[in-house]
Amino acid sequence: MSAQTFTIGELAREFELTTRAMRFYEDKGLLAPARTGPGGRQRVYGARDRTRLALTLRAKRLGLSLNEVKDILDMYDSPRDTVAQLEKFLGVLGAHRAQLEAQLAEVQGNLDDVRAQEDQARAALERARRSADGPAARSSKATPRSTAKPAPKSPRATPAKAAAPPH
Fold this sequence. Notes:
Layout: H1 8-14, H2 19-27, E1 34-36, E2 42-44, H3 47-62, H4 66-77, H5 82-132, H6 135-142, H7 159-163
Helix pairs in contact: 3-4, 4-5
């Protein structure tokens, strides 16, 4: 029975990645495909690489750095004690959770500030609307204006001409 293998393009399509991203993960030591063909130019990924890629992407979604992901994946490749591996994994996850909770608290504080500013702006808008509709505006609305037009002013009697000093 032959082990299932994948090309770089097949895995890239399956995980919706670019082949460049696949090579980047390889450069970071997260994937280690076998090399075939002339000069070892063709990458052949096995089930182990596929699993490591899936775990890498899951850890990225959790917000772990690629170095943290590599440390965790490498722990499972070594013949060390499972208890120590799980303790380290829980430590990494706990530290990451604490960081996310701190960020969440900061974002929540920012949201509270935005809500307070919105409340203040709404109150100011309401005050501005009430003052625009103040007593003078209300009395002019209540009293109908005369439809008669005022008499035109004489050009000679304008205050600007009367106040101008002689030259």
